[in-house]
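Ligand-bound model needed. adenosine-5'-diphosphate.
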Amino acid sequence: MGEKGMLIVVSGPSGAGKGTLCNILLNRVENLFLSISATTRSPRAQEIHGESYFFLDKNDFENKIKNGDFLEWAKVYNNYYGTPKEFVNNMLNEGKDVILEIDTQGAAQVKRNCPAGVFIFISPPDIQELKKRIVKRGSETQDSIDLRVKRARDELKASLDYDYVVFNDDLDKAALKIQSIVLSERCKVSRNKKILQAILGGN
Ligand code: ADP
Ligand code: 5GP
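Prediction:
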């Protein structure tokens, strides 16, 4: 059997550019898959159930918590969000790398259970720019914008527990950085022991 896949956790305040950077990464790097989260928040225009998120009502979500269906879950901006466990475990067991785009509370849970994961924090250049980006995205009400900007500082404080920080000022440069992190992590000796042993064993 080959190596297990790598778990990549991407966090950062709302509007930092996580979704934008993860999409670029998924287009550029092969053998990499995005975990689709479940949430109780309402779909935004153009969001599709099963593609952007699994949109669940509160009862269904709480039942899934009780059943132990989530790798991690958290309440973020007054809604539940969680990572379905089965998909992630299946992919990792097949040697595929998986990205979780989750908040810092969820990332802390993952770190406790999967310390070999790669933890990447996406930071905006500053809070003013963050606010501009959330407004420009056009997806949030004024209350939701205020809540997200207010929470940004707490999210930023949690960056100290991550392995990498990518400042998303210039998008191309930030995309190259996150791509470089993933490719470098894949080259770590600790992630390639079985292949190295097979080469040695082959004489
Ligand atoms: P998040 O997933 O972290 O909430 P998004 O990826 O949705 O953030 O990005 C928020 C908004 O900012 C989007 O409209 C996106 O197009 C824009 N954006 C992302 N990165 C940059 C960047 N480097 N420069 C300017 N705008 C950006
Ligand atoms: P949004 O509502 O903007 O899509 O996401 C809001 C926040 O929830 C973002 O910080 C995002 O990373 C986080 N989030 C999305 N999915 C999950 C998840 O499965 N678990 C956790 N803990 N946070 C998530």
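The chain has one domain: 7-202.
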